[in-house]
Write a structure and sequence with these properties.
The protein is an alpha/beta fold and 279 residues long. The protein is 39% helix and 14% strand. The radius of gyration is 18 Å and the shape is globular.
C-alpha cells in the first residue's frame, strides 16, 4: 500500500496528529518540530509520545517525518545564526530519539552571497558536529527550487555536501516534486531521466522520502510555489507515473499542498487511486 500522509499541526501533540492522520486515510505524516518561524519548542510530553507509539502500532502509521523550522540557516554568514541552526537541530534530534524510525528533514539554507563553496563547507561542518553526538535519526537534505542563494538547487550541490560529511550512514535526501520541477528537472516528460541523473550524482539509495506537491509555476521557474495535486504545471498524469514508478513507489510520500484536512483527505484518496492503476 502507498505510504502517504500530509503536513499536520503538532500543537496538540503526537497522539492528536496520529488520530488526524487515521481520520483522513493517511498512514504517515509530517510535522514541524516547533513553530516554523520561531525557535523555542514546547516541552516534550513523554506520556503523549508513548500513547502515540501504541496508537501508531495499532493503526499502521510508520516512518513519520519531522521538518526543521524555516528559520534555520546552516550556512548563514552570521556565526550566531549558524550556532542557532546547530543547537536547534541537536535539540530536535534528541527529542526524535523517543520516536524510533522517524526521519528529520531540513532545508540546506542560503549562502547569502558568500558563494556556493562556503555554503557547502558550513553545512557539512555542522552535520559533522551533529554526527559526533551519535543521534540515530535519519537526517534528510531537501532538494530546493533555487530561489536567490538557496543551497541544494541541483543534485550536484547536495552531492558536494554529502561528500564532506564523514559519516553518512544516517544522511539521506528528500525529493520535493515542486522544487525539482521549478529547479529545472523535467519530472513531467522525463521522470526516468531525472531519476537516472539523481542515481548517477547522488545515488538512489540515499533517496528516503518524497514531498509530493504540484507547482504553480512552469519548469525551471525557480519560484517554489506549491499547488494542489493535478491543479498545477506538473499535472495528474505525471503524478500517476511518480507514485507507480518502481524506484519511488515504496518510499513515503508527504503532501505539502495548500490545503486543509478535508483537501488532504481528497488528495490522499486521489493518489492512492493513481497508485492502484495498472502500470
Amino acid at each position: 500500500m502507498l505510504r502517504i500522509g500530509c503536513h499536520l499541526s503538532s500543537s496538540k501533540g503526537f497522539l492528536a496528529m496520529g488520530r488526524e492522520a487515521v481520520k483522513i486515510g493517511a498512514n504517515t505524516f509530517q510535522f514541524f518540530t516547533r513553530n516554523p518561524r520561531g525557535g523555542k519548542a514546547k516541552e516534550l510530553d513523554l506520556a503523549d509520545v508513548g500513547a502515540y507509539l501504541e496508537f501508531a502500532k495499532e493503526h499502521g502509521i510508520a516512518q513519520i517525518l519531522a521538518h526543521a523550522p524555516y528559520t534555520l540557516n546552516a550556512c548563514a554568514k552570521d556565526e550566531g545564526l549558524r550556532r542557532f541552526a546547530y543547537e536547534t537541530m541537536c535539540d530536535d534530534l534528541q527529542r526524535l530519539s523517543h520516536i524510533p524510525g522517524s526521519m528529520y528533514n531540513f532545508h540546506p539554507g542560503s549562502h547569502v552571497k558568500q558563494g556556493v563553496e562556503i555554503g557547502i563547507a558550513y553545512i557539512s561542518e555542522m552535520l559533522n558536529r551533529i554526527n559526533a553526538h551519535g543521534y540515530d535519526t535519519m537526517i534528510l537534505l531537501e532538494t530546493m527550487a533555487g530561489k536567490g542563494s538557496e543551497m541544494g538547487r541541483n543534485f550536484e550541490e547536495l552531492r558536494a555536501i554529502i561528500d564532506r560529511v564523514e559519516d553518512t550512514q544516517r544522511l539521506g535526501v528528500c525529493l520535493d516534486t515542486c522544487h525539482v520541477f521549478d529547479g529545472g528537472y523535467d519530472i513531467v516528460d522525463d521522470l526516468d531521466g531525472v531519476l537516472g541523473e539523481f542515481d548517477k550524482v547522488i545515488g538512489l539509495v540515499r533517496l528516503k522520502a518524497v514531498h509530493i506537491n504540484d507547482s504553480k509555476n512552469p519548469l525551471g521557474s525557480r519560484k517554489d510555489r506549491h499547488e494542489k495535486i493535478g491543479e498545477g504545471e506538473i499535472g495528474l498524469d505525471a503524478f500517476a507515473r511518480i507514485v507507480t514508478h518502481p524506484r519511488l513507489r515504496d518510499l513515503p510520500f508527504y503532501l505539502e499542498t495548500p490545503n486543509e484536512l478535508a483537501g488532504y483527505q481528497k488528495e490522499i484518496m486521489l493518489l492512492r487511486a493513481l497508485a492502484e492503476q495498472p502500470v
